[in-house]
Amino acid sequence: MKKHISFPINIWDDYYEDGYVPEGEKQETYMYVETDEVTLEQKKNILEHILSYINNNLKLNGVKTSLIFYDSKIKYPTLVGSEYEWCLFERWEVRFENLTHKRLFKLLDELTSANLMVDNTPLNIYSES
Questions:
Q1: Core-most of 19, 52, 61, 115, by most CB within 10 Å?
Q2: CA-based nearest residue to 93, from 39, 7, 33
């Protein structure tokens, strides 16, 4: 693996605000490795490491987590072969269901304080949309 200063990990924060979730909807967001300098397999390994830490060390109280492979071609098949095909992407994501923004900020603090590393490289975990 190429040596990096850190691996950038983004938890998307553009989802329903606390207290303003429409009836029948839920707060859902995701975490992903935000660089093209590592392979999909390396990204998966990084996210598995973070998810393992979360599941074994943190109390998320009602928040469901999962690791998924997201392929935008499946969600937007009409873009395949179109002038907008360049917009399509594939990536590994940790999905969070029922993660409030208040809990997201606490999660960020907990993950930052843990000083997580993969292959002796720090994880730079942040949240922005």
A1: 52
A2: 33
